[in-house]
Amino acid sequence: MTGFAENRRVAIVALVVANYDEAIAWYVDRLGFLLTEDVDLGGGKRWVTVAPANGQGARLLLAEASDGMQASRIGNQTGGRVFLFLETDDFVRDHAAMLAKGVEFREAPRVEPYGTVAVFADLHGNLWDLIEPKR
């Protein structure tokens, strides 16, 4: 009816990073993500994606900054607002695991009408919500 295919989804979100390998290590070691692709594109460029271990949700494309303009956006892609939302089925478990891995939470967990949530920063300072939605 709208002219668009019915089966569409946001599949990949690009995240500008300073260094491919540093970003891979952080997302794999600290958040428990899986490295889903690492393809050499030549000229120092790579196609690098990571995703939550259960494979649900969008993948992140770790895009190494290639110039000064891109580098200026590292850690502040959204002007200081929460950028990404990591949904969990067990907030207490994942919050504790992330703290144990050295993830920096910017606030104590809180309960909101939509679920239990806390803001954390990634390796470059981008803000994320860890959230267990209210069911």
Summarize the SSE layout with pairings.
Blueprint: E1 12-17, H1 20-31, E2 34-42, E3 45-51, E4 59-64, H2 68-71, E5 82-87, H3 91-100, E6 104-105, E7 110-112, E8 115-121, E9 127-133
Parallel strand pairs: 1-4, 5-9
Antiparallel strand pairs: 2-3, 3-4, 6-8, 7-8, 8-9
Please summarize what this structure is.
By secondary structure, this protein is α+β, with helices and mostly antiparallel strands. Helix content is 19%, strand content 39%.
Question: How does this structure look, described?
Answer:
With 135 residues, the chain is α+β, with helices and mostly antiparallel strands. The protein has helices at residues 20-31, 68-71, 91-100, and strands at residues 12-17, 34-42, 45-51, 59-64, 82-87, 104-105, 110-112, 115-121, 127-133. 19% of the residues lie in helices and 39% in strands. It is built from 3 helices and 9 strands; from the N terminus they run E-H-E-E-E-H-E-H-E-E-E-E. The model has no long low-confidence stretch (mean pLDDT 95).
Unreliable parts? none
Into which percentage range does the β-strand content fall? 35-45%
Whole-number mean pLDDT: 95
Terminal CA distance reads 32 Å
The count of helical stretches stands at 3
Q: What general form does the structure show?
A: globular
What key attributes describe this structure?
135 residues; 5-stranded mixed sheet; 4-stranded mixed sheet; 9 strands
